[in-house]
Amino acid sequence: MRQKLYLECYTGISGDMTVAALLDLGADEAKLREALDSLGLEGYSVEISRVRKSGLDVCDFAVKLDDIHENHDHDMAYLHGQSDSHLHTHTHEHGDGHSHEHPHNHDHEHEHIHDHSHEHEHSHEHDHHHGHTHSHRGLPEIIEILQRSAMTPRAKATALRIFDILAEAEAKAHGVPREQVHFHEVGAVDSIVDIAAAAVCLDDLGVEDVIVPVLYEGCGSIRCQHGVIPVPVPATLNIVSEHHLPLHQTGTEGEFVTPTGAAIAAAIRTEDRFPETYYIEKIGLGGGKRSYERPSILRAMLITADEAGDSCPEADDSQAGNGSSENADTIVKLECNVDDCSGEALGYTMERLFQAGARDVHYTPVFMKKNRPGYMITVICTPNRREIMEDILFAETTTIGIRRQTMERTVLARHNQTVETSLGKVDVKVTEYKGQTKYTPEYESAARIAGAAQRPYADVYEQILLEIRTGR
Fold first, then answer.
1. What percent of the chain is helix, strand and coil (3-state, nearest 5)?
2. Which 3 state secondary structure label does DSSP give 201?
3. Residue 257 half-sphere exposure, CB side, CA atoms within 13 Å?
4. Tens-digit pLDDT profile for residues 85-131
5. Which pTM was predicted?
6. Would you call the peptide bond into 232 cis, given omega within 30 degrees of 0 as the criterion?
């Protein structure tokens, strides 16, 4: 049965909470650190530990910045309108039973008044006068950082989509083109790491279906450089509005849903409802850094649907599947023909479609009216991504019409794993069908080994397969 990821956002969602919950589910820490090292960013370290929140043992993912890169965006007293004399500390209960106080360091991701362009820089002139400037990065700089990393193509696409969603939200909030948005908190080192880490962990778990029924948000207001604004903040509101995320506002003061958290949910959410019956395979708890009335804990679950229990009464029993090695789902196929688009435009369009969550994109050469050579663009996506895909096709190509078709498909159960071979560690995709197991080495792993060993790729690939099959 195909696994699905469920994110329970009853106390909100942020970048660090998401990473921690996914690590607790079993995402590979070594693989995560290797990918983060390849970003080429300086001035930070990552700490992964166990902490206690409301008596529960949860995973904590923290990005520790050095003095030069520290953005001091953790001043909760300032953000909530208190003076410096009222700065408070909160207690981080660690698994060893000891409590450690961390002054106003409630959220390491801290996009709190996230004008990722310029509005929410806090300027930190509120009696602190920190002796350095913040790092501002535009979307092109962030894309370059991610593209040159050693992250897998799927992880890169997820991270790029998250940033694309954030850029659109900030551009709308401030009335500027997305290309002119300059990120502050989200462009800072800690938030780039949070977003990249979330993408890497999601890719490592190999889950494609993500259930996010609702986001719980707080109320009240929060301070930015130019004054006090209400919660939810503009960027978060733009994201939940644009991507149709259900939002439930609680009566608790505070910001529970950060723009990064909302963008992650928007980027990966494929479903908003549970199967009628399901099995819980694993539970992960990720802790946040904020101290509100509600404990900051994101609960993530890997579940599998009970196909028999989830079937409609009138469904044909013969279509219920033949074991646990396959599952059926619904996808949308979009098609359009163009004969006056440049190769550069088509290449850029494909990148945007994948970043926006397309399952597949391909171009087929065709002859159109008057024997003009052209291309048929085919996009495969989930139903909730259809409108986004059509928007991109209309914006980036010359098409004036898009055909669409809703289709059912059969998908093999699959997961990713890392295998030790005589050539080194290799990432492998494992699929199962009717008792048969198939192993497919990931291209990036095989290519990396081939390059390091200066051997032909085909030889390396075949040796990896042989060792996996024979268990040597």
1. 35, 35, 35
2. helix
3. 31
4. 333 333 333 333 333 333 333 333 333 333 333 333 333 333 333 33
5. 0.63
6. yes
